[in-house]
Amino acid sequence: MYGHEKAIRVLKQKYENEYFNAGIALAFSTHSRRNVTNNVENQWLLVGLIRIDDETQGDLLLG
Q: Would you give the end-to-end CA distance of the chain in angstroms?
């Protein structure tokens, strides 16, 4: 849709700027099927990126 160069710029903006400025957590997991296939123990895989936007809670006593 964007072409190679613009796609890279869009992805870099999203992940290197927006996500890291908001906060980011990486979700890792082991996958037994992949471990058996590759003959390794506890191979960790990145399975997700979690964007953490800090939001403050408003005053509960104000209606």
A: 47
Contact criterion met (CB below 8 Å) for 19 and 42: no
Torsion-angle region of residue 34: left (phi > 0), alpha (psi -120 to 50) or beta?
alpha
19-62 pLDDT, tens digit each:
888 888 889 987 766 666 777 777 778 889 888 887 776 777 77
Give the pLDDT confidence score for residue 8 in this predicted structure.
94
Distance CA(54)–CA(56), nearest Å, equals 7
Q: Give the start-to-end residue ranges of the domains of the chain.
A: 23-53
